Each structure stands twice: as structure tokens, then as C-alpha cells.
Amino acid sequence: MIMARRRTFEGAHVERVLEIQSYLSGLSRNYVQCLEDWDISLQLQHTVKRILGKNRVEAIESVAVDDRWNFIPGSEEIIPCDTLLLSVGLIPENELSKKAGVMLDPITGGPYVDEHFQTNVPGIFAAGNVVHVYDLVDWVSLAGVEAGKSAAEFALAEKARTARYIPLIPGKNVRYIVPHKLDKQALEQGDIHLQMRVTRPIEEDVWMEVHGENNSIVRRSERYVRPGEMVTIVLKPKMHADVEKSGSLTVDIYPKSEA
Ligand SMILES: Cc1cc2nc3c(=O)[nH]c(=O)nc-3n(C[C@H](O)[C@H](O)[C@H](O)COP(=O)(O)OP(=O)(O)OC[C@H]3O[C@@H](n4cnc5c(N)ncnc54)[C@H](O)[C@@H]3O)c2cc1C
After folding, report:
1. Nearest CA to ligand 1 atom 34
2. CATH 3.50.50.60: does it fit domain 91-161?
3. CA-closest residue to ligand 1 atom 10
4. Which tens digit of pLDDT belongs to each residue from 179-213?
5. Whose C-alpha lies nearest to ligand 1, atom 40?
């Protein structure tokens, strides 16, 4: 969507944006500012079936897809154009991490990290899009500060930090959570941001709940959740006693109507 607007700024006519998912996979803000404001149409559940042209692109054939991304026969359309811009997502580049023995999460494509952004290899920290793809750079900056501070503390420490980790488990409608694990003691020192993406959009009031095996730790409400927009839940030091009782924390995101 950003590139569609950028091409428009540069004088191109953008015919349309095709999105294979049945929902917007980018930020709603970008939809409004990059497409709506520039009269560029978005076709959901559509993709490119063929590229036509001999020495250069002359047209594409678009096609509608069903929920399993199968082409829907008869929905094909030839769209004349001289350029096709493919935007198919970011994959964190982790060649160095792999060589260093850093464990990667197959869902995010980035390292497993704790609340200080330390990987499974002591002394190797990771922050930003290399861990998971952020929507807003402000969160990247905060993660960078935390990782840098923690790396400095690690370098200056005379003995290794003892941690009592518990896993953070993606529950109902949660695709992944960063950090992946949490040192129970860390909560005594300040807020911890749990950041996640949902599996599917819910366009109604939702509860976002963190709970242990038998106890609810925190629950907050949101007007909607969408896969294109990162979700944040804050754990506060006052929740330390509840977290202390838990062997793991699970995050569920569900419509209030189903509560
Ligand atoms: C198209 C697009 C538009 C966006 N627009 C916005 C926006 O409008 N507002 C907003 O808040 N956020 C926006 N974001 C999100 C935000 O920009 C990113 O989340 C942020 O830039 C990520 O920062 P980063 O430092 O983790 O990664 P990057 O900005 O990607 O920086 C990583 C750097 O590491 C370098 N690098 C990679 N491998 C190595 C290596 N082996 N050795 C040394 N250097 C290496 C790369 O060259 C790169 O310069 C946008 C993202 C994209 C992709």
C-alpha cells in the first residue's frame, strides 16, 4: 500500500492492489492514507494468475480465490499494465544468528528471546524486525533500548544472571508472542510489554487476557483486532505475585460475545 502511494507520487497510475487474504494484512492507517486518499482500489481475495508480455510486462491476469486460496474459475480478468510490483512480506534475515547457534521461531522467522531480548545463546541479543516484523518503528526503538541496556549489563556482570523462566504460550487467536519466555524476577523491576499478532481479524469488542494455569493475571478490552496490527499487553510489577504462582502464561484473544 505504501508503494502504491509512492508510485502515485512519482507520476505512475496505479491500477489497483490485489490482496490474497480476505482481510487487510497491513495497517488500517495505511489503507486510508495510501489507498483511499489516492482513489486506489483494493481487491481482497484476489491474486495474480499470469503475467502477460513478451519483452516486458504488458498485462496481468487476476483471479479471485476462495478461503483456501484456490482459483475461482470464471473470475479471471486481464488488467493491462506495464509494471507489476510484488509485495509478499518480510522474512527476518538470520544467517549470522543461525551460524551462532541461535534458536529460531518458525512462526516469526526470528530468534526466541526473553524479556531482555536475549536469545538462547548467552550474550547474543536481538531486537527489531530481525525478531518479528513490527508495524511501528517506535516499538522497534524501545526494543533496541532494552536490548542495548541488557547487553551492557550482561557484559559488565561478574557472574551469570540466574533466571527462572516460564514460557509465554499463544492461546486462542494468537499467532505468536514476543518475548517467548519470561524471567519471573524481571517483573519486580518494571513493566514488561508482551507483543503479539492475531491469527484472524475480529471486528467486534474483544477481551485480551493473560492467564496462568488456574488464575487470570490481566484482562483488557479492545474494539477490534487485526492481523496487520500488532497487539500489546503490559504486565505490571503489581502482577508479580500472580505470575510467581504460574508455571506458564497463556494469552487468549476472543470476542466479548463469546466470553
Ligand atoms: C515498506 C515499509 C514501510 C514502513 N513504514 C513505516 C512507517 O511509516 N512508520 C513506522 O513507524 N514504521 C514503518 N515501518 C516499520 C519500521 O520501519 C520497521 O519496523 C523498522 O524500520 C525496523 O527497524 P530495524 O532496525 O529492526 O530494521 P531495519 O530498519 O530493516 O534495519 C536493519 C539494518 O540492518 C542492516 N543489516 C542487515 N544484515 C546485516 C549484517 N549482517 N550486518 C550489518 N548490518 C546488517 C540492514 O542493511 C538494515 O540497514 C515500515 C516498514 C516497511 C517495510
Report:
1. 130
2. yes
3. 136
4. 999 998 888 889 999 999 999 999 999 999 999 99
5. 96
How far is it, in rounded angstroms, from Cα 72 to Cα 83? 24
User: Which of 119, 67, 75 lies closest to 96, judged by CA?
Assistant: 119
Provide the pairing of β-strand 249-255 with 165-170: parallel
Report the predicted TM-score, pTM, of the whole model to 2 decimal places. 0.85
Q: Where are the domains of the chain?
A: 2-80, 91-161, 164-259
CA of 133 to the centre of ligand 1 (A): 9
At 47, the amino acid letter reads: T
> Which CATH class, in words, describes the domain spanning 164-259?
mainly beta
Identical fold, 91-161 and 164-259: no
pLDDT in tens, 90-100: 888 899 999 99
Instruction: For residue 136, give the ligand 1 atom closest to its CA.
Output: 11
